[in-house]
Amino acid sequence: MYNSEKPAPEELPSTAQLIRSTIIALVAAIVILVTIVLPAEYAIDPTGAGRALGLTSMGEIKNQLAREAAEDEKRHGGPQSNAIDWLFSILAPSAHAQDAWKDEFTFTLAPGKPAEIKFPLKKGDSVEFAWSAEGGRINFDLHAHGQGKSHTYEKGRGKTSGQGKFTAPFVGEHGWFWRNRDKQDVTVTLRIRGDYDKITKTF
After folding, report:
1. Of 142, 176, 179, 197, which cross-links 154 as Cys (Cβ 3.0–4.6 Å)?
2. What is the DSSP code string of 13-62?
């Protein structure tokens, strides 16, 4: 086993040299912290060097992502919900395919002209819908009648859109009566899905 020779005392750095080297290393670390780390990680750029090097924008992006993550955690209850959201995003396309609209109708009504879309439902059957009007406003009455009964789900005047879901309270005809009370043609698009088998249209 070899024994290394001890360096001579004159070969060892002096205390002043050690202090100087420590100060140089400390100054270098501070320079790196101020010009590179702070701008890139926290968008803190007191010297402007980070902006010149394109590092400050990285810090700004990280800060924005951190704020969004914190807001999302407050709304949805933390990292577990983020995992759930991620899983849902993967399954969303197939879920959307299953929930696609069953039927879609587009018709144009001249001023003063009416239209009807109805379907027979049994008690407890449900229908989901979404509609929009282009070119003007329209009046509508979403209602049901049958077995000597009548029921109004919703009605509106001068509307341009609507959406929702209703459940039949009794057996009968359920649907919309539309009329264009505007001064120009109005094109209506209706999308529906639910527990119906046939549809009657008058337009």
Report:
1. 142
2. PPHHHHHHHHHHHHHHHHHHIIIIIHHHHH---SSSHHHHHT-HHHHHHH
